[in-house]
Design brief:
Strand order of the largest sheet: 1-2-7-8-9-10-11
Strand content: 5-15%
Radius of gyration: 31 Å
Number of helices: 26
Number of strands: 12
Structural class: alpha/beta
């Protein structure tokens, strides 16, 4: 089938080369960005120093040697000062407007607060004859949340100890454009270039996010987007910044309390290695018996070593660079995907020549239009590739054997060739997606591949339908094909269902359901503790763990299924091949995660293919080649 479509196969080559060019540009961006920052929280360090009766500067020095690069300082609010007794305030009315009168006994602090409020346009009146008393046009409740900048004494100490300062500004309902402008300008004047928002909202949320993003860029501030934190406004902020930010990872207090240090170390290293995290915001661990400082210095040092072992450097992080995606390369890829789609159709039923190339022109025009129209259009074309190529791999390469008309003398050798051929088509599709979506927006998850569950389900259902309908039917008139398909489907539906059939189908559906629930960016079910440990072992042995549904389920099932099929054991060969399709779509899905480095995705895929092949071959030697009871049963069912 593939041979008679040699012209369409040739049309795939330019698109594949274009994909390689774009994937190579992405790879170079990833290689050029390997610095990772380790950040601690200033408040936590203060608490540790106090509990250990140690000077804060000595504590900072210890962590400096452990590899910490920066300290996060949270913006002070008037509530913070009130809670320590440095200021007092009470509700009042000024010109019939609800206001708050603030009294600050210390004149130096009063001057700082007054200047901060004046710059942020919150100061209603300053009593010149009482320099330590202001009226602010905000209620006491609102006043609690208003920030007045970073504490200067903390900033100076952090600088003197050789750390970068990471600002943590707070959003509040009364924030204004002038307040945002002033806060950003102050950070720049203080030489601060990192910003991670405190609380559950991003500065400028809501309504002023676009303005806040412009001010960050104007003042050369690098925004840190905290992974999994789901701060309100973060998605819009990241989009406004067009990918010009760094991804941060942190483990919340609640999780840290019940997490072993080794698990936290592994989690930070994996975040850097697998998800393009460039800033680790480390929360300190609690210890019993041992000094908190010593224990945490050792903890941070272990995180640094784990990250360096993964091939990254500890240093100043920066956003990913940009690379161009010439439209001509994208259009060549569109032609390639359209050609693959036509080959797939022609691998199922014979298409008339004029009809075939007519569809090709229409499909190319549609894909090209989608790519040129918008980012969403490009994502839809990528989804088409994710559906077409794995399906073509199974139906186009193995499909001619579905009828089980020959009995191969060397089933394992034939299965190896077909398994490789199928995987090559899937990987061609994977590289199309890696190239088409390989720009900074996807590398930092501003944009994402859409339709991940569809990409899993559709190829599987198409393969099952082709098997059930008795397809492919080549060189047959379409009318006759339709009649046979109906007849075959009716026969399948009328087939008696035995208990073992029901068990087998239920088992397969459970595997499929679990696989689907664990796909996507917000998986419905998590990973068990046992599996996490299993993954950690694989990571240590193989450096990059393969996906379970590939090396343990999909690939072995595919190999064993092909070997059984070509040795005329169709009744078990076809279901196993259908199950093996799950491994192919998962393999392609690996490359849909553009925020995972390309080299790591490639290593994960290779590991999965090699391990899956070995397990499949072992299964064939045990259950297929040897004429065991199971084997005899398989033969009798064919």
């Amino acid at each position: 089938m593939l041979k008679r479509n040699w012209l369409l196969l040739i049309l795939i080559i330019p698109g594949l080369l274009s994909a390689f060019v774009l994937a190579d540009r992405r790879y170079k961006l990833e290689i050029a960005n390997r610095n990772v920052e380790l950040i601690l929280d200033y408040q936590e360090l203060q608490n540790v120093a106090l509990s250990e009766s140690t000077a804060l500067s000595d504590v900072l020095s210890s962590f400096r040697q452990a590899g910490v690069t920066g300290i996060a300082i949270t913006e002070q609010t008037l509530e913070d000062l009130a809670s320590t007794g440095q200021i007092r305030f009470r509700a009042t009315l000024y010109n019939n407007e609800p206001c708050t009168e603030v009294i600050i006994p210390d004149s130096t602090l009063a001057k700082r607060v007054w200047e901060a409020l004046l710059k942020r346009n919150y100061l209603h009146i300053h009593f010149a004859n009482k320099p330590t008393c202001f009226v602010i046009k905000a209620t006491p409740e609102t006043l609690n949340t208003i920030g007045i900048g970073l504490p200067p004494e903390a900033v100076n100490l952090i600088r003197q100890c050789g750390f970068d300062v990471v600002a943590r500004l707070q959003n509040h309902p009364a924030i204004t454009t002038k307040a945002i402008d002033s806060a950003a300008k102050e950070l720049r004047q203080d030489g601060i270039s990192r910003l991670i928002c405190a609380g559950d909202e991003v500065i400028g949320f809501r309504g002023l996010l676009s303005h806040a993003a412009k001010q960050l860029e104007k003042n050369s501030l690098i925004y840190g987007s905290i992974e999994f934190a789901k701060q309100k406004g973060d998605t819009i902020m990241c989009r406004e910044l067009e990918g010009n930010f760094i991804r941060a990872h942190s483990i919340p207090y609640t999780e840290m309390a019940g997490m072993a240090p080794s698990a936290a170390i592994e989690r930070f290293a994996r975040a850097v290695k697998e998800r393009n995290i460039r800033l680790c915001y480390i929360r300190l661990i609690e210890s019993s018996g041992q000094s908190d400082i010593d224990k945490n210095v050792q903890f941070v040092s272990s995180i640094r070593k784990a990250i360096e072992k993964a091939g990254y450097k500890i240093g100043t992080a920066r956003p990913f660079g940009t690379s161009s995606q010439p439209i001509i390369l994208l259009l060549l890829m569109a032609l390639s995907i359209a050609s693959a789609g036509i080959i797939l159709l022609d691998s199922i039923v014979t298409l008339p020549g004029i009809f075939k190339y007519g569809i090709l022109i229409l499909a190319f025009a549609a894909f090209a239009g989608l790519i040129a129209s918008s980012e969403l259009g490009k994502q839809l074309v990528a989804l088409k590739a994710a559906i077409i190529f794995p399906t073509l791999g199974v139906v186009g390469v193995i499909g001619p054997r579905f009828a089980c008309k020959t009995n191969e003398k060397s089933p394992a050798l034939t299965a190896t060739k077909l398994f490789i051929g199928t995987s090559i088509f899937t990987l061609i599709g994977a590289f199309h997606i890696a190239g088409m979506l390989g720009n900074r927006l996807y590398m930092v998850k501003v944009e994402q591949f859409i339709g991940i569950k569809l990409a899993h389900i559709v190829p599987l259902f198409v393969v099952i339908f082709v098997m059930a309908a008795g397809l492919p039917m080549i060189n047959e008139p379409l009318g006759r094909v339709w009649a046979k398909v109906r007849e075959n489907l009716h026969s399948v539906m009328a087939h008696p269902l035995f208990v073992w059939h029901a068990i087998a189908v239920s088992f397969a559906l459970i595997i499929l359901l679990i696989a689907l629930m664990r796909t996507g960016n917000d998986a419905a079910i998590g990973v068990s503790t046992v599996e996490l440990k299993f993954r950690a072992i694989l990571d240590k042995i193989l450096f990059v763990r393969p996906r379970t549904k590939e090396f343990l389920i999909g690939h072995p099932a595919m190999f064993l299924g092909i070997a059984l099929l070509v040795s005329r054991r169709r009744a078990w060969g076809l279901p196993l091949i259908a199950l093996g399709t799950l491994g192919q779509v998962s393999m392609l899905n690996t490359f849909c995660h553009i925020h995972t480095p390309l080299a790591l995705s490639a290593m994960r895929t290779i590991n999965g293919l090699v391990l899956g092949f070995i397990l499949g071959l072992a299964a064939w030697l045990i259950f297929g080649k040897r004429n065991t009871g199971v084997s005899r049963k398989l033969t009798s069912d064919s």
